Amino acid sequence: MSEVGTNENPLRVAIVGAGPTGFYAAEHLYKHKDLVVEIDMFDRLPTPYGLVRAGVAPDHQKIKSVTKVFARTAKKPGFRFFGNVEMGRHLSLKDLQAHYHQIIYCTGAQTDRYLDIPGADLQGHHPATEFVAWYNGHPDFRDYEFDLSQESAAVIGIGNVAMDVARILCRTRDELAQTDIADYALEALANSNIKKVYILGRRGPAQAKFTTPEIKELGEMEDADIFVLPEEAQLDPLSEESLAESADRGTARKVQIIQSYADNVPTGKSRELILRFLVSPTEMFGDADGQLKSMRLVHNELYATGAGTMRPRATDRFEDIDVGLVFRSVGYRGVALPGVPFNDSWGVILNADGRVIDPDTKEPVLGQYTAGWIKRGPSGVIGTNKPDALETVRAMLEDLTGGRILDPDFPEAAAAEQLVHNRQPDYFTFADWEKLDEIEVAKGYALGRPRLKFTSVEEMLAAIGKQAAEPVL
Ligand code: NAP
């Protein structure tokens, strides 16, 4: 048999997860002119692009244009997309090992971090990740319900996801109607009764995780005013000193914008966004029916750690706020894949620079790699995953050169396709996705919207002329 990576014997790679990282990994692999590679990309959803479709806020359409680059990668020779195919359900690790020389896990972070405080199980408290997936039309979340008849809501955390959630809660029907938000979410949000949205940061303005454009955008809402308490907008002496020393202009600009909101007065808009700092929820209270009614906050002070960061410490000052709907937006978390070593406390696949590591021997596991949020945790913007995927691809190519690759029993592309066909006859090819995409865009165009999303797998199957069949295991 000729060398792996040649026309006669292409390098066969399985990428699990069709989000940005999966596409960046594929792009990096295709850059090597001397390497003949065949890539099969799997996703449990029929649609590609991961969080670009199901996470990026619908009112941030420009960010979604990155998919044009991914679609070009999908046209490269030897690339195949198998959507609606889930590892652990339709395909096992053994199956992948029997068909590929290398496997890359790019499954992102599919769940969220919990907030363990009394009352957290009350009705009305939800992970922000579920709300985001719901308004973006993710098929697994379309039937979720959020009680938008409440007058007051709160978002816990001040990262960019919290900004997205707060903005979407405050957008008008007209603003939402210009986006690709799921149609049921548009209807529910347009009829929402929410008048007040708190956004709760446990540290101060200088430590906020949101980025400058996002905080600026909150001050430019059509029908919502933003307020910051003057005493919370002021930096504490430690933060002031550390900001001056760091000469971090980005953070200084963010702080300046936050402080400008402390001068705001009501302008008659229907909704209020109240951005709070140095407060942590300590307890949620409900009524006899288990419905959330209010939340207790403790005021924090900051202290410097030896590592140069500022941590919050609770004081003995408390306050209660009335809220009937709360979204915790305190970070995403990765989910383990069957048979793949996982670091449970960090919520990531156990790895060193992208090589999956055996927990016992601490040595790389042959042929298995990871990239993106499931490798490093949920940080950075979409583009951050490009260098991250490059690091992994470099490790893969080093291992290929060193002969440290799997020796699959069935290395032919046709064998993998047959396997998928047997296990999940309702798989989606990239051409199927292109057909769906075209229909969604055309339906959206008719309404003056970027697209009208299909939000159930059955609808998607019907749109491309397939009928749902039970998987054969
Ligand atoms: P994030 O940026 O890590 O923010 C998490 C927030 O939760 C922080 O404010 C954090 O506070 C807070 N938090 C954590 N534990 C808490 C607790 N126990 N109590 C109260 N607050 C707590 O995460 P994210 O917002 O989920 O975003 C994930 C990644 O996606 C980020 O890199 C983000 O920039 C990116 N993203 C980007 C965009 C965009 O570019 N427009 C949009 C959405 C998401 P501390 O700082 O004190 O820990």
Task: Please describe the topology of this protein.
Elements: E1 11-16, H1 20-30, E2 37-43, H2 50-54, H3 67-74, E3 79-83, H4 93-99, E4 102-105, E5 111-112, E6 125-127, H5 128-135, E7 152-156, H6 160-170, H7 173-177, H8 183-190, E8 196-200, H9 212-218, E9 224-228, H10 230-233, H11 237-246, H12 249-261, E10 271-276, E11 279-286, E12 292-304, E13 310-322, E14 325-328, E15 332-333, E16 342-343, E17 348-349, E18 351-352, E19 355-357, E20 364-370, H13 373-376, H14 385-401, H15 413-423, H16 430-446, H17 457-463
Parallel strand pairs: 1-2, 1-4, 2-3, 4-20, 6-14, 7-8, 7-14, 8-10, 9-10
Antiparallel strand pairs: 5-15, 11-12, 12-13, 16-17, 18-19, 19-20
Helix pairs in contact: 1-3, 1-14, 5-6
Bound molecules: NADP nicotinamide-adenine-dinucleotide phosphate (NAP).
TL;DR?
This protein has helices spanning 20-30, 50-54, 67-74, 93-99, 128-135, 160-170, 173-177, 183-190, 212-218, 230-233, 237-246, 249-261, 373-376, 385-401, 413-423, 430-446, 457-463; strands at 11-16, 37-43, 79-83, 102-105, 111-112, 125-127, 152-156, 196-200, 224-228, 271-276, 279-286, 292-304, 310-322, 325-328, 332-333, 342-343, 348-349, 351-352, 355-357, 364-370.
